[in-house]
Amino acid sequence: MIIPAINATIALTRGPPGALILSNKEEIARKISETTFPFLVATPYCNKFASLAVTLAELLKHADNFAEQIVSNAKTLGEALYSEGIDVLCRDKGYTESHMLMMDIREYGSGEDVERELAEAHIISNKMPLPGDRWDQKSGIRIGVNEVTRRGMKAPEMQQIASIIGDILVEDKSPADVADDVISLMSGFQEVKYTL
Fold first, then answer.
1. How many CB atoms lie within 10 A of CB 124?
2. Dihedral, CA atoms, 107, 111, 116, 118, nearest 10 degrees?
């Protein structure tokens, strides 16, 4: 699959892949190390360190505003997707408490199918298993708002994104028919915010 240029795509993630656990307590650091190494982690990929350093520097500079806007955008997108008729999980928590939304999309196809359809419309998501799925089944997708938030999008744009996703899933419009809507939306958000 070929993903179009980022300036015409709703990409929903931030920083290099991986995880970072920090502690200034030796006892905690030792327990974490003994629990994760070598079973969960082994070889460090040094090429990620520069990207991680930049990401952490940006977060230190913009942590409060960026984090608040991400959570606000995610909650707004979750509510808007639910209003479109899409089964967004965790309604009891305002749909999310982080950057990520999870949806049960069984009525629209498999996670693989929905992920592919959204990608054809320039919307990046990830298929995911839901509780009760077989090992080879993906009944959900997840979508995050980090990158659209970095572009300066807020509540009105979350409504637009939900409407576009609703057009594809609920209204059964062709991804090709709504791809221009995504390009049009993204064209107004070319400057990266919350950066160094």
1. 17
2. 60
Please report, in angstroms and rounded to a whole number, the separation of the first and last CA atoms in the chain. Answer: 32
26/5 Cα distance (integer angstroms)? 44
Reference 10, options 168, 171, 155, 150; nearest CA is 150
The first and second tokens of residue 118, run together, are 């959204």
Fold of the 63-187 domain: Aspartate Aminotransferase, domain 1 (3.90.1150)
> What is residue 123's three-state secondary structure?
strand
AA letter at 48: K
The single residue listed with the structure tokens 């082994």 is 42
Cα radius of gyration (the chain): 18
Closest CA to 86 of 128, 126, 142: 142
The torsion of the CA quartet 99, 104, 110, 115, rounded to 10 degrees, works out to: -20
Instruction: Please write the tens of the pLDDT for every residue from 21-49.
Output: 777 888 888 888 888 776 666 666 777 77
Instruction: Encode pLDDT of 103-116 as tens digits.
Output: 999 999 999 999 99
Q: What are the extents of the domains in the chain?
A: 63-187
> What residue has token string 């982690």?
41
pLDDT digits (tens, 9 = 90+) for 77-97: 999 999 999 999 999 999 999
**E strand or H helix that includes residue 126:** strand 126-128
